[in-house]
Amino acid sequence: MKRYLKHYSAIILSASISACSIGSKPSMPIIHDLGPAAQHTSNNVTITMDAPVWLWDDRIRYRLLYDDATVIRYYNNDRWEAPLPALLERRLIITGLRRPVHLRVQLTQFEQQFEAADTAHVVMTLTVNIFAANSAGLQGERRFSLIQKNVPPNAAGAIIGYGALIEQAQTEIQTWLSTLSDEPLET
C-alpha cells in the first residue's frame, strides 16, 4: 500500500507541476514597423535621423495624462522592429525637389497619450535642418509638432496613428522645402 501511495503521490506532484505551465506560455511580442514605404524612382533628398537616447528603443511608448503624466509606460507585447529613429529614417521619404539636399532630422517626441482610459492621440515633434548636398551651409530650419487625435486606445491604434503622422510630416516637410530658395542662410 505504501508503494502505491508513493507512486500516486509522485504522479499527483508531477501533474501539479506540469499543470502550472499549461497555458502560461509567455506570449511572443508582436513586431511592428511603420508600414510600407512608398516606392520612388529618384530622390534628391538624403535624410539623417537623430533622437535622444530614450527614443532609441524598440518599445512602444505611451503616457496616461489622466493618471500620472510624468510616467512613461510601454506596451508589453508590442515592439518596434528596430529602434524608432531608424524606422522613421527609412520611412520618411521626401521627393520632387529640383536640387539635391540633405535633411538632418531631430526627433524629440513620439508617443501615444491617453486623456482618459478610452480616449487617446499620438504626437510627434521633430526639427528639420536642410543643407545643400555636399555642403555645410544651413539653408533652413523648422520645428514640426504634429498630433493625430482620436486613435484607438491600444497599441494597434498607436501604430495606425503613427502612420498618419508620418504621412502628415512628409507633406508638411515637402511643402516647407518647396518654399526655400537655393541659397544658404547667412550666419
Task: Describe the protein.
By secondary structure, this protein is of the alpha/beta class. The chain has helices at residues 2-21, 84-91, 155-178; strands at 30-32, 45-50, 59-64, 72-80, 101-116, 119-132, 138-151. Strands 1, 2, 3, 4, 5, 6 and 7 form a seven-stranded mixed beta sheet that branches.
Annotate the secondary structure layout.
Layout: H1 2-21, E1 30-32, E2 45-50, E3 59-64, E4 72-80, H2 84-91, E5 101-116, E6 119-132, E7 138-151, H3 155-178
Parallel strand pairs: 1-4, 2-5, 3-5
Antiparallel strand pairs: 3-4, 5-6, 6-7
Gist of the model:
The protein has 187 residues and is an alpha/beta fold.
Using brief descriptors, characterize the structure shown:
alpha/beta; 187 residues; 3 helices; elongated; Rossmann fold; 36% strand; single chain; 28% helix; 7 strands
Q: What percent of residues are in strands?
A: 35-45%
Provide the residue-averaged pLDDT. Answer: 83
Counted up, domains total 1
Q: Could you say what the CATH topology is called?
A: Rossmann fold
Helix count equals 3
Largest sheet: 7 strands, mixed
Number of strands: 7
Tell me the Rg in angstroms. 24 Å
What multimeric state do the chains show?
single chain
- Name of the CATH superfamily: ABC-type transport auxiliary lipoprotein component
**CATH architecture term:** 3-Layer(aba) Sandwich
Determine the structural class based on helices, strands and strand pairing.
alpha/beta
Secondary-structure element sequence? HEEEEHEEEH
Could you list the spans in which at least 5 consecutive residues all have pLDDT below 50? 9-21
Distance from N terminus to C terminus (CA atoms, Å) equals 96 Å
